[in-house]
Write a structure and sequence with these properties.
Layout (H helix, E strand, L loop, with lengths): L1 H12 L12 H7 L15 E15 L6 E9 L2 E7 L1 H7 L8 E9 L6 E9 L3 H5 L2 E7 L13 H10 L2 E12 L2 E11 L3 H11 L5 E4 L40 E4 L4 H14 L11
Parallel strand pairs: 3-5, 6-7, 8-10
Antiparallel strand pairs: 1-2, 1-4, 2-3, 4-5, 6-9, 7-8
């Protein structure tokens, strides 16, 4: 309904009034893009970028020499528009996604051979595939207390979590962020999973903690949070992350102390005991969890 209303406004008025079609995907866009369209002006030539937006223009053409099909497009996000070029090989692979008003994620390289920069498209993903294609790390947040401040009494949830993650084999790494007695400890694991919104929902259901699973995309090129709806340092639980300090120092910005694993052996040992108990002693090390 929202998309239809936006499309009708664009057809009649030439612009969107009540909302923009990209508003629906603002959290995903902030999690999985590396720059906004406007920020590409600050990016050097040949640097790989990931942007998201909708095609406002798609002009299908051919190369001069071989007459192979290609496309010249204009992509709009909430910050502006930029021209993007799909050469024959890329065009053949993604031509079904190059449709006017289609919302997509684009991976490509910045081209600065003309007065205005543009993007040479390498890959195009529909919005639904962005988590699987662009998630680099799945961060699972385990808190020692619930939203009401009561201590958690784990009753098999960690075993369920372990099983759920092992069933989703893929390429994204898994990190456990443990909140314990006002401290935060980051624990690496040997797991690699296939990230998806379904996995995020499943993990949060197991732990009974909204926001307990964060899908973290590629690193921002020019800072964190470039959609107008996203506060700095936060993106709705998709790509939000804490800045860990080395040597056991606290993270800047206040709040919980963030410690690397080696700086908080007491917390690690406590988690290891809880994890082993929850797994019936089958888990020998938090590193193997």
């Amino acid at each position: 309904e929202l998309r239809e209303r936006c499309a009708n406004e664009k057809d009649v008025l030439g612009f969107h009034v009540s909302s923009h079609p990209l508003d629906e995907f603002s959290e995903l866009i902030d999690a999985f893009t590396t720059v906004s369209v406007r920020e590409i002006r600050q990016v050097k030539a040949d640097v790989e970028v990931v942007i998201a937006g909708m095609f406002t223009r798609v002009r299908k053409t051919v190369t001069r020499k071989s007459q192979d099909p290609m496309a010249i497009t204009t992509v709009q996000d909430l910050s502006g528009e930029i021209d993007c070029v799909a050469f024959p090989k890329t065009y053949e692979a993604c031509r079904h996604l190059l449709e006017a008003d289609g919302v997509v994620f684009l991976k490509g390289k910045v081209d600065r051979r003309r007065e205005e920069p543009n993007v040479i498209i390498e890959e195009v993903y529909p919005v639904s595939e962005a988590p699987a294609k662009l998630t680099r790390l799945v961060r699972v947040v385990v808190k020692d207390r619930d939203a009401d401040g009561r201590a958690h009494a784990w009753n098999g949830e960690l075993r369920q979590l372990h099983t759920a993650l092992r069933q989703q084999k893929g390429t994204a790494g898994v990190q456990i962020e443990v909140h314990d007695a006002g401290r935060v400890v980051m624990l690496s694991t040997m797991l690699s999973v296939s990230a998806s919104l379904q996995l995020k929902s499943q993990v949060e259901g197991i732990l009974k903690q909204p926001g307990a699973c964060r899908l973290i995309g590629p690193a921002k090129l020019l800072g964190v949070g470039h959609t107008p709806h996203a506060a700095a340092g936060s993106n709705g639980g998709y790509g939000a992350g804490l800045h860990s300090t080395s040597g056991g120092g606290s993270a800047s910005g206040g709040g919980d102390d963030v410690l690397v694993r080696d700086a908080s052996e007491a917390v690690v040992n406590r988690l290891e005991r809880n994890t082993m108990a929850d797994h019936g002693g089958a888990c020998a090390s938090v590193d193997r969890y």
